[in-house]
Amino acid sequence: MQHPLENHIRNVPDFPKPGIGFKDITPIMRDHLPAMIDAMSAGINWNEIDYVIGIESRGFILGSAMALQNGKGFLPVRKKGKLPPPVVAQSYTLEYGTDTLEMAVNDKKARVLLVDDVLATGGTLNATRALCEMNHFEVKGMAVFINLSFLNNFASSGQKIHSVLTY
């Protein structure tokens, strides 16, 4: 069954490079952000979450809104060189290149929810999970708006991911 928000996705062919079909969720964020945050927050056991970790950049928007709605703190995961030291870093491969993510060093144990807009190959979420393990964070869940399941093996690996839309 199609989710009502799916009608507002703009499909952009050959972006950011030829052969990639980009699913633009900006119209949903512009016109239906409360419904989007409700849908992403549904099914999360918020009693098990201390902080929401948002992944640059749309994960900042979605994750901070989810944290605010559910009375939790928010922490950013940023691209290399954007956070002041000390940081931990993790490189990863994404569907069209490589990059490095960083997170501020933490020594306090906590339970976290990872949030991003789209799960494609899984490189970004896996790198963020590795950063959490380096930082005493227990990953209790992962939430995305769109899971492009044909590009990743999260289901077959037993990794649980909460998504509003799955392709």
H-E order: EEHEHEEEEHEE
Oligomer designation = single chain
| Count of domains | 1
CATH class: Alpha Beta
Describe, in short, the structure shown:
This protein is of the alpha/beta class and 167 residues long.
Describe this protein with a few key phrases.
9 strands; 167 residues; globular; alpha/beta; single chain
What would you note in describing this structure?
By secondary structure, this protein is of the alpha/beta class. It has one domain: Rossmann fold. The chain has 3 helices and 9 strands. It has helices at residues 26-41, 58-69, 123-134; strands spanning 10-12, 22-24, 51-55, 73-79, 87-94, 97-104, 110-119, 137-147, 162-166. The chain has a 7-stranded mixed beta sheet, sandwiched between helices. Strands 1-2 form a two-stranded antiparallel ribbon. The longest helix has 16 residues, at 26-41. The mean pLDDT is 93. Helix content is 24%, strand content 36%. α1 (26-41) packs across α2.
Topology:
Layout: E1 10-12, E2 22-24, H1 26-41, E3 51-55, H2 58-69, E4 73-79, E5 87-94, E6 97-104, E7 110-119, H3 123-134, E8 137-147, E9 162-166
Parallel strand pairs: 3-4, 3-7, 7-8, 8-9
Antiparallel strand pairs: 1-2, 4-6, 5-6
Helix pairs in contact: 1-2
